[in-house]
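Hi Y.,

Following your request, here is the sequence exactly as I used it, all 137 residues.
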Amino acid sequence: MASAADKIEASPSSLAFSTSERNKTLSLDIEVSNTGDFTENVSFAFEGVDSKYNAKLLDGTTSVTAFTPIPESAKKFKVSIFVPKDEPSGKKDIGNLKVTFVRKDGGGSVQTLIIPLTLDVPSMLEIDKIVARVKEK
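Below is the corresponding structure, written out as tokens. Let me know if you'd prefer a different format.
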């Protein structure tokens, strides 16, 4: 007989945003599942994410910071970030989405999932080859 357990999972386990456009909001889906045996209090917080990205966790169009999933349930959310018009090119870590959970009945210990967030903004100008021709007089 398996023992009862607290278990929250997130899929995907990291979020990689990519765009060649700036001054634009991007979003990716994330699903949070309660695969354990207890109803959980789940809270969300962005850590180390610069305010210029205006990161949000959305349930539809509503910004959320917590929810309480029953056992064997899942919920999809959108994580959105804003890419500023002056964002430099390149791939970078922009912070984490921290998912913290504890049993609603107060039993068990506080547990945490860390979801890394990355942003890849390709260069707007790419030169593959330069050909110069000199005209003789």
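The mean pLDDT is 90.

Thanks again,
Q.
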